[in-house]
Input
Amino acid sequence: MRRKHRRLQSEADLDITPFMNLMIVLVPVLLLNMVFAHTSVLELNFPTGDSLSAQQAEELQIQVVIYEDRLVVADNQGGVIKNIPQREGEYDFVLLKDVMKEIKSRVPDKKDVIIMPSRQTSYQSLVSVMDTVRSYEAVVAGSVVEAELFPEISLGDAPAQPSGSAEVSS
Output
């Protein structure tokens, strides 16, 4: 009778070298991308139900009202400062920035502004107005920096449009 010799079968070792190489490359790449993907947060002041004190009522309040067809820059003391009509169906943010720079040059200590969008205002338009009134790019000593305009933004509801200024559609 012949003896059968069984071959000893050994299991192959699991080679994790390619996986480790992948991790060595992937982890630093993910960590580097975390630095570039950051979210900016803008602090907003919402109106409270409290009545205004006498000092707050006398203080200058700059307002930017966003209507469907125009932007209105006004204050609580002198009324409308500038009506900015739309150009080619878009809000004129360049003119708005110029008006805000002019106001800032008159009252350099003022840091707050009230933005009042109408119900039809798109989110993108609201954010663009907020970005425009907050700061602008200025050249200082040969480099471009963000110069501050009115960084403290409050939100409110736009008043109803005056009856004579609304567009009439036929």
